[in-house]
Amino acid sequence: MSQNIDKFDAVSHQFAKLDSSTQRAKYFFSTIPYCTIEKDEDGSTYLNYDLSKNKFMTPSYMPLVQVFNILSKDLHDVSNLYELQDRLRDM
Known about the structure:
Layout: H1 23-30, E1 35-39, E2 45-49, H2 64-74, H3 81-90
């Protein structure tokens, strides 16, 4: 019995929240492009897509797991849509 004890560690009893997410959530997380928020001369903000990551000069999407981990770590305590909007703007 002691030969198989390593098969039953803590990792084997945990599950990934991303795996249990809905398909719509996974689609949303997988379509966020690499971009930065820039300000122009009059102070208004706009998205600047990082086109250097793609040879076709179209936006490249961030890895799904990376996006999910960042958002779930930083936004896990949001209680309503207005707070979500404010927190996303501040990121």
